[in-house]
């Protein structure tokens, strides 16, 4: 009986080692991103708002919306249009140093010990433009909304 038990344990041990070393190899496909051309009404609407931008990269988002991404003056901007060329939204990403002075001074006044991480200017057709600024105040991360006049909104 001892030999049978010893044999069983040895078989279990060796099979465990054998299967533990089996690695499955996943092959990843590296494909280049396709360049997508936006429809003419979308390009025309974009050209009216951002005539000086020539290097926008286009992609299609759900619900048939088209998105252009570009950088201007070290500010990364994303603009979204419907397939008909109607503007939906604009989101511009700012570093702490690039935030407008009205926004920065409001944050310094309201949160004097806070560290500004980054911020976004968000413009939509249904809401007045505002900034969403990520700060760290007393070890706590916060997102603060500030309108263009420099007033904190909740």
Structure, explained:
With 154 residues, this protein is an alpha+beta fold. 25% of the residues lie in helices and 39% in strands. Strands 1-2-3-4-5-6-7-8 form an eight-stranded antiparallel sheet, with helices on one face. The longest helix has 19 residues, at 2-20. The chain starts with a helix and ends with a strand. The model has no long low-confidence stretch (mean pLDDT 83).
Secondary-structure map:
Layout: H1 2-20, H2 40-49, E1 57-61, E2 65-72, E3 75-81, E4 87-95, H3 101-110, E5 115-124, E6 127-137, E7 140-147, E8 152-153
Antiparallel strand pairs: 1-2, 2-3, 3-4, 4-5, 5-6, 6-7, 7-8
Question: What key attributes describe this structure?
Answer:
154 residues, alpha+beta, 8-stranded antiparallel β-sheet, 3 helices
Number of E-state strands: 8
Structural class of the helix and strand makeup?
alpha+beta
Helical segment count: 3
- Report mean pLDDT, rounded to a whole number: 83
Major sheet strand order: 1-2-3-4-5-6-7-8
Separation of termini?
A: 76 Å
Shape: flat
What is the makeup of the main sheet?
A: 8 strands, antiparallel
Helix proportion range: 25-40%
Relative strand content: 35-45%
Residue runs with pLDDT of under 50 for 5 or more positions? none
- Element pattern in H and E: HHEEEEHEEEE
**Radius of gyration, taken over Cα atoms and rounded to an integer in Å:** 27 Å
